[in-house]
Amino acid sequence: MQLSLHTDQAVKFLICMTQHSSGCASARDISDMCGLTADEVAGIVHDLDRCGLIERSSDGSDGLRLRHDPAWVRVGDVIRSIEAVRVHPAPAHQPAFTEMFDLAHAAFMAALNDYSLSDIAGTAARNVSGGAASYGASGVAVMVPS
Question: What pTM does this model have?
Answer without folding.
Answer: 0.76
